[in-house]
Amino acid sequence: MPNKVPLGKPLELTDAELDAMTTADEIKKAQKEAEELWRKSVKPEIADLLDALDTPE
Amino acid sequence: MFPLLTGYGWNGTRYYDLETGQFVSNAAVREGLESVMDASALQMNALTQQLIDGGISLADWQTGMMQQIKITHTTSAALSQGGWAAMTQSDWGATGQLIRAQYDYLRNFAAEIASGKQPLDGRALVRADLYADAANGTFAEMGRRDAIESGFDEEMRELEDTINACDGCIEQAMLDWQPIGTLKAIGSQECSTRCRCEFKFRNSETGEER
Questions:
Q1: Do the Cβ atoms of B10 and A9 come within 8 Å?
Q2: What ipTM score was computed for the predicted complex, to two decimals?
Q3: Do A22 and B83 touch (CB under 8 A)?
Q4: pTM over 0.90
Q5: What are the residues whose beta carbons fall under 8 Å from the beta carbon of B13, sequence distance 6 or more?
Q6: Does B134 share its domain with B164?
Q7: Domain end marker among B150, B172, B194
Q8: B 6-25 residues with CB < 8 A to A
Q9: Residues spanned by the domain of B131
Q10: Nearest CA to A57 among B200, B23, B99?
């Protein structure tokens, strides 16, 4: 049975379009918003965790 | 005189406090991930409720969900890899592939809403929540990838607990140590993205475990 509310159509995304949206460079652009999600979600004690200095042994 | 270092470091395996040198517990890292998934689930829930109420179109809902998926899984991947500074171009690419899979599932979800196969009621809200929880699978897969790069060649599945584990997870855990990359992914069994099993890794030559 169709859903009753006026929904419109879903996005018509091809596989190639999804591929293009998920390249390394495209995903990198989400870093700032991901950082905001992290900071607003976690306890203040670990808010700086994702800014860790990379100091491999 | 050196400035006092504050914040955290990543030694290639674990986070540590720069000032005290103490390691950050796995539990604290996991708690951070759970907090992110909870916050994200709230956003996805709100978007889906707006769709149910007729406040936004299906295309707008899909766009909003994709954005939330992207930032949630990006956060999870970065947490798994040791933070932003430790993310290599290859890590970003691997994160993109995991997000790509979620976009695919979402495209199917949207199509089922459009066709009516997916009723727009509480069941849609529950299904939407799964996309936030799936970030746990991204955390596990990125960790597995890092383990392979670090020379670990065996893996085993550890159950979060034996009482609530699903049959598939129990079967996977009973396989004990297996060649790395051969056990089923976290989130692939009956408990789906609610799965909170973890992988352990071992180097068969040195006996080192992670």
A1: no
A2: 0.92
A3: no
A4: yes
A5: A57, B150, B210
A6: no
A7: B150
A8: 7-13, 15, 18, 24
A9: 26-150
A10: B23
